[in-house]
């Protein structure tokens, strides 16, 4: 096992702090949210100190600069995920992006968007397919859409090792209108075979919605090549600030889709009676946007591009392998998900039989090791493993072998303490 | 760690008192901790102003399980007003960021004083209080019921 | 006229920059977005460098700190607007807050939220009342809601001097279910007599939705005393970062309302079939929130509280008066809105006959004076004045008499250049 | 300021050429600048590969009005392919951040060169191009129409 450490922890101010009476912080909770490099914080601050103004709404110099920064960030994101400029819509987080798609289908179903939007109308008898491994963000909006339109929710099930079970792909059938699925599970870390799902969905003419929240942050992704119709992810998981997310939508679809949030900056002509809307992406960006955060997002993309997503992925593969091997040396621990490093992220959830995750996390925290405990917003995924909750260690660009080793050592203390 | 996981807590989390269900509870309350999906169900009957029967089921961490078990031991058979007062004092302790309350209150809390350290960890506050939230809720129901009952 | 200058421009780094070849910046576009004091930028950065972690989702020390910062900011906002803690919902901007209310009514109408939510159901024959002075953010969502539910949109009209016309308040009648209106117009600056509208709405049992976007930033406000049911405003207009906004909802109503965005952190029990939701405010905060921005918002509220909203309002009143008097010295200019300083903000839109607002703004910009040109997201308000667009100067805490004087001087140059 | 508002522009914004409407335009396009609500409507007929008739209406700032007026003068009666080429060159100029293009292109642009300064102000780019966007759109329609027409 070679060390592929990128040695960038020094770029991340928060990682220099200590916790619990002077302990070195070992941050293994990147699956929840990533720490931010100085370059990102500087970019956001520079925007606020030099170029802050209303975007697409002013004719003065600072407003022009703000608008240019805002759209340059969009171009950077488009390049990062293999999309066209106007296929990138800013949202506050991935959750909003997924809701945007669900609500646009609802609005079309309720008659908005004219004939262009008829293709998005749902009716009783239609089916929406999700999976048992979804984060609540890519499950509950579809439950709600089904409840409101009379469509039926069906789902792909999970295998014992936490992957999508191809044997259950036949829930995708003639009645399927939408297939919403995750690119990578935030519980099991398993990476989905996207083409297998997309091919099947395309064969029946269903729209595909990809939850790229974990993947875009850790793998090179190209939505055009993946062939999905929509994809959503969050900046805060990929070194960018909180409060900024992205929805990708295939150009032709965004063109035809009715808006979701309505208000300023997304309209053409407004009378008291009636309103016409701008083309995408503006049509989906109502109100004053998270402009300073787009500047931070731009810097995060630059940072990741400089590093190279391939190198980042290789680095994290190696950490995943080390984590899995380390966990295997602690007797009794059950990994929820694949136990081998292929086609998975460095996101490892596990069960310590007889010890509740809260207690596991507490003993780790006491040693300075920050992990996540609970259901990680994926209760059905946990239920598929027959557990209520789990402990999850997840790595990022800044983690090192030392971090993994400290975590394994900490896990041994947990077992000792409660053993 | 030892400050948080006092022996009393570890013991009660393993050997739990009061687990079970009642046949005809006058009050019952189901509570969830959304962070972890932990849950508990507390059932209660009252008679002559006292808790006449009490039982609980639940799944959760050592803190929440020990809290339910110790709660059972401390309040079963006791006057409702005193139980409510004890609950208030316990809540006060848990919100006291790891500091003890004044000696009088610590005396009143008896073994519940072992939970003092929980207050240092804001994410665990809910664990310690989950059972007590359910009890408060269940008691309100039980007493509403008995008032209605006596009014007929 | 006494100078009440607060002399705080030095707290705002951006105001120290120059524009257009070294000209001093005179920023009179606060109505669009405010500049940020160092204290706000520092608070946001401190959060990112010391306390950044997932909120309400972790048991480690940093997650605890992040959660505490997030909820402390909510408490500060609640205190600032006279609300209870759980009546404050974080949004990304005011636009989202207003859409949240409209979509929750829609969801209730479509059967979600059970019997508790029946009170929000709309039906054909019901009426929604708005006003001609609304920002598109408080108009288009109601148009859309009406189109989707079969309710009818009606409106209060504007007087010649840009106030709500009490003579038209009788559009609020027995069929009215919702009255959505602005606390202060972002075009005319007119402050609404809120009790007059609320009383009428209450008399017919209609819900009231207040657009407090301009008011909360410039006046002391207390939503409980105003008696409105909902109110929305944006952080970026009140010295806080972009990407953070607030929806106020009366406790009893938020309790009964079905959620809008769904996903993580707002659910109780999730099965593949069904989901139960948390109580407010969490029920309305799906997904990872703009946590660093709440820290910035907290600092902004502290900054405003230290200054005193009364003093701020008095300062801006004086600037408004100086602006109106100055404009009156430039022949031919028509103010859109009240021409006297009572019951108005320091937001002054005007028409320079024969000169298009773009051209007005350009000549001002050339002198370093940043104003807004266009319809300011309020086309119907402009139409009520018989114009397409206007130029708007709007002041903030950091402006001085010198700024106003420079603006008036600039306006004279405009008339000269195009005269 | 004088760099932006060249005399040619000020003159054309006051004395506008080509304002009006056609009776039976083969192509027409309505364009809006959402920032300010400015709008224009361009109508066109073509014959033998040339613009045979052209008219426009609109409201907007001096830049957009002057651009429409000068556009009319430059393209009315000209071959469609040349007009499209001119439009491309003009777009290139406006996106050139205030710098002139190479002398050959500047020659081609003739009086349109007065718009060079607009490129320094990104918020005004749309003003200068609004009419040309409408013309491009209208020409596409007109030619689709004439192709369809000739096919019958
Ligand atoms: C009166 C008024 N309402 C609503 C808004 C919308 O606010 P935001 O764009 O921050 O959502 C604004 C500002 O643009 C406003 O001035
Ligand atoms: C797989 C997955 N999907 C969706 C989300 C939701 O992202 P956010 O909370 O940023 O909206 C997350 C993270 O919480 C996630 O891990």
Automatic annotation (TrEMBL), chains B, D:
It holds the Pfam family NifU_N. Residues 5-127 form the NIF system FeS cluster assembly NifU N-terminal domain. It comes from the Bacteria. GO terms for molecular function: iron ion binding; iron-sulfur cluster binding. GO terms for biological process: iron-sulfur cluster assembly. InterPro entries: NIF_FeS_clus_asmbl_NifU_N. This is SUF system NifU family Fe-S cluster assembly protein. It comes from Nesterenkonia sedimenti. The lineage of its organism: Bacteria, Bacillati, Actinomycetota, Actinomycetes, Micrococcales.
């Amino acid at each position: 096992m070679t060390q592929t450490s990128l040695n960038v922890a020094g770029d991340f101010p928060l990682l220099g702090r200590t916790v619990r009476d002077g302990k070195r912080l070992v941050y293994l909770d990147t699956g929840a949210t990533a720490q931010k490099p100085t370059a990102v914080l500087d970019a956001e601050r520079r925007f606020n100190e030099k170029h802050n103004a209303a975007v697409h709404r002013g004719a003065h110099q600072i407003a022009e600069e703000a608008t240019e920064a805002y759209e340059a960030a969009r171009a950077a994101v488009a390049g990062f995920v293999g999309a066209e400029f106007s296929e990138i819509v800013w949202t506050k987080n991935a959750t909003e992006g997924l809701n945007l798609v669900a609500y646009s289908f609802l609005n079309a179903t309720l008659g908005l968007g004219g004939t262009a939007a008829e293709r998005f109308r749902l009716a009783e008898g239609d089916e929406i397919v999700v999976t048992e491994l979804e984060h609540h963000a890519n499950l509950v909006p579809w439950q709600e859409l089904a409840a409101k339109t009379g469509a039926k929710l069906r789902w792909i099930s999970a295998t014992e090792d936490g992957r999508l079970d191809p044997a259950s792909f036949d829930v995708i059938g003639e009645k399927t209108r939408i297939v919403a699925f995750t690119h990578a599970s935030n519980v099991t870390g398993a990476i989905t075979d996207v083409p297998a799902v997309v091919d099947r969905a395309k064969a029946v003419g269903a729209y595909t919605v990809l939850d790229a929240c974990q993947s875009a942050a850790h793998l090179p992704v190209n939505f055009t090549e993946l062939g999905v119709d929509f994809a959503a992810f969050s900046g805060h998981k990929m070194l960018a600030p909180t409060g900024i997310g992205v929805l990708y939508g295939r150009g032709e679809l965004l063109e035809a889709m009715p808006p979701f949030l309505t208000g300023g900056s997304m309209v053409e002509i407004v009378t008291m009676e009636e309103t016409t809307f701008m083309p995408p992406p503006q049509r989906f960006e109502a109100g004053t946007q998270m402009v300073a955060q787009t500047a931070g997002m731009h810097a995060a993309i630059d940072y990741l591009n400089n590093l190279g997503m391939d190198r980042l992925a290789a680095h994290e593969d190696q950490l995943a392998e080390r984590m899995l091997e380390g966990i295997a040396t602690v007797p009794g621990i059950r990994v929820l998900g694949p136990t081998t490093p292929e086609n998975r992220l460095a996101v490892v959830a596990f069960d310590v039989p007889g010890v509740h995750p809260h207690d596991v996390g507490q003993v780790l925290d006491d040693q300075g090791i920050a992990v996540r405990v609970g259901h990680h917003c994926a209760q059905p995924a946990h239920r598929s493993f027959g557990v209520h909750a789990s402990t999850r260690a997840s790595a990022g660009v800044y983690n090192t072998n030392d971090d993994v080793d400290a975590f394994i050592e900490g896990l041994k203390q947990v077992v000792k303490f409660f053993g | 760690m030892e400050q948080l996981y006092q022996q009393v807590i570890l013991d009660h989390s393993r050997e739990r008192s009061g687990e079970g269900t009642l046949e005809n509870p006058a009050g019952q309350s189901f509570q969830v901790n959304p962070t972890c999906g932990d849950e508990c169900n507390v059932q209660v009957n009252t008679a002559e102003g006292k808790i006449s029967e009490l039982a609980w089921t639940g799944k959760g961490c050592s803190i929440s399980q020990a809290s339910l078990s110790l709660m059972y031991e401390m309040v079963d058979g006791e006057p409702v007003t005193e139980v409510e007062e004890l609950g208030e004092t316990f809540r006060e302790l848990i919100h006291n960021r790891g500091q003890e309350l004044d000696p009088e209150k610590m005396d009143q809390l008896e073994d519940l004083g072992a939970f003092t350290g929980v207050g240092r960890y804001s994410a665990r506050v809910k664990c310690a209080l989950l059972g007590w939230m359910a009890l408060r809720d269940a008691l309100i129901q039980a007493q509403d019921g008995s008032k209605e009952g006596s009014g007929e």
